[in-house]
Amino acid sequence: MTVENIPNVRTCITPLEEDIKVYEQDRVGEIPDKKFFNKNRKKIDEDVVIVGSGPAGLMAAITAAKQEVPSILLVDENHLFGGQLIKQSHKFFGSEEEKAGTRGIDLAIELMEQVNSFKNIKSMLETTIIGCYNGKNNHKLIAVKRLTKGDQLYEINCKSVIFACGAMENMLAFPGNDLPGVYGAGGVQTLMNVYGVKPGKEVLMIGAGNVGLIVSYQLLQAGVSVNRVVEILPKIGGYNVHAAKLRRCGVPIFTSHSIKEVYGKGKVEGATVVAVNNSFKEIPGTEENVTCDTVCIAVGLTPSIRLLEQIGAKTEYIAEAGGHVAIHDSSMQTTVKGVFVAGDSSGIEEASTAMIEGQLAGISAALLLGYDKEAGKLKKKFRKALDGFRSGPFGLKPKTCKEKIACCWDGGINY
Amino acid sequence: MNEIEKKADIIIIGGGVNGCSLAYQLAKKGKKVVLCERNYICSGATGRCGAGIRQQWSTRENTELSIKSIKIFEKLEKELGQDIGLRQGGYLIIVHNNKDMIQAEKNVKMQKELGLDVSILTPDEILDVVSILDIEGMKAIGATFCPTDGHVDPFKTTHAYAKAAERQGAKLYKFTNVTDIKTKNKRIDCVVTNRGKIKTNIVINAAGAWSKQIAEKLNIKLPNKPFRKEILVTERVKPVFKAMVISFKDGIYFSQQDEGQILGGIPIPNEISGYLTNPTFDFLNHMSKTLTRYSPKLKYVNVIRQWTGYYDVTPDARPILGEVDEIKGFIQCNGFSGHGFMLSPMVTKILTDYITDGKSSDILEKLLIKRFKDKEITHETSVVG
Predict the structure, then answer these.
(1) Closest alpha carbon within chain A to B262
(2) Domains delineated in chain A
(3) How far is A30 from chain B (nearest CA, A)?
(4) pLDDT tens-digit map of A352-373
(5) How would DSSP label each residue in B321-336?
(6) What is the pTM assigned to this prediction?
């Protein structure tokens, strides 16, 4: 969309203004002729910069602040802190230490209050890191802060940086996947739980992992009808307690089924689902048309690692991590000194483990700068907590993921 | 991974455009070809390049090579049965001072002798070709322009070659690392890879910036040096120019793709040789400043991505081709100094003729590695990026 003569604007994250001029763009927009950057680049120096304010980023900031690191900057591209937490109206599982029983949305508020209480944490919202470069003794991050009157470019120099940038939703390839009405589950959650907008009237959910199951239930709570949940695997991937809740509400879950296509004129009017065999091949003749106006895709996440790659951290493809992931040691430091990673960026897992990884990264970043208050003891405690989460059948995948990352760290693969 | 072949007529090291083109042409001539690429097809310089093809050079060999290369590019889609993304919007080479104009006139004279459609433009004529340029900002006194220069998609081309090669029976092994090359009586005997040993008498070293290391396995010292080169691309805006704009003085090159992105690069000052892959802020800074000096209209266009690749640079900025004297069957196809993609059609044809029919040519003789033993070498001065 073109907004105020500026082409290629993501209107979904652009705040409305009086008399704002928004145009549909035919393929590509004109070269912008209007100034939208302030002329001067602002320079800031920080000790630790944390990119992303989800559970990992918030905990990293709080932990580094407790270690008395003098200047910490927390940056997030959204207009609210909390990352995915602010969409999560359900209660967490796990141990009490990691806030089990608390709803994500409440946790975000609680952690933000803590962040605000520290004088050594500064925070910047609606700020996107567009590039990062490492020098001999420091790292340079280039950021754009969106302001109502023109954007501001920042050059941030820091001694250490923690990337807690989360993950991106996976998309599926099928005819019609670009029709309005096809959403990622995260997008549906944002519309519903952050903006208070119903995404549609009748939803077809793809994917029966925890996200697919929880979002289906939240849709029901919002008064949206969920036609069914379709899962390509022969069994439900998420926790039984979530699946049971859905079933009690009369939503059927079709395992060994997949989406074939979405049809409609200019928007979603329905979708064809089909049964698949053991090798995920469609079984001809089992196609069924489902009438719906929304298709919600919840088929997993891929770690966001672009900034990590740009700064030179070694990455590897690890299936259990959800894709390419930055290789890191047990204190969450990547192969670039002073560059840390935490949360989904270091392998797809859960909010609770993201919080511990954030703490670990916060401690380690502080330690690197010489703030070593009880560091050894705390590190040990966090690692033990992580091991706890990564035991048992649901912990197997992240456990394998982290073991593989450890192998790569030891120089298993070298380019 | 599957079993690999135990024997081949020719083993090509490197799955860039030159490796894949050689694989296709040699297989077409009935040779049993194996190509080893330690990563994936197009993972090196080919897949990271600026994708320009030009015929305006200062040395006769490069001009000849590139004129013939573009003739091949023009017919390539038909031959390979696949679109290669050819677009001939011309190259506009900006001239900034009288001294450079004398050189430009000399170049144009030589290029015209070789039959190239090329002309010298006045500042006004420059704006007829690319309207968004700023003559004062560029400090331009003129330009040279060849309308048949242009752009080819490196991914489409290389994959088209790769597929055509496989149709001709060549084996392309990806993620296959050459760990050693063995000789017997000063003749290539076999290639050792992480997937096994392959017997052969001919090895073509088309490993781009890593060719030096391949040659070292045989104690051959190549004078090539790897240089990190950076490039950026902007968001898509309405297409307003078709030509590639370059300047040898500023080192900048940029063009607009059909889809609307503006793509270009510039060398960062004081870049030293080495295997560095990180993109730098200096480049982003330097490139945006120079680009907006050339075309202030682009001031508010967003950069969406920057990346790096390598130039495999020789002392005279010309490629090293052909067999080395020390070891029979060890053939070089490297040192392209940033022009491997655009020269590839003709270079690979020359090498194919040499390998299959023993036919040498003037150009091949001039580009053998032994030229560096002579005191005087002809330097290619028309280099950007």
Answers:
(1) A31
(2) 42-168+302-409 (3.50.50.60), 171-299 (3.50.50.60)
(3) 5
(4) 899 999 999 999 999 999 998 8
(5) EEE-SSSBTEEEEE--
(6) 0.85
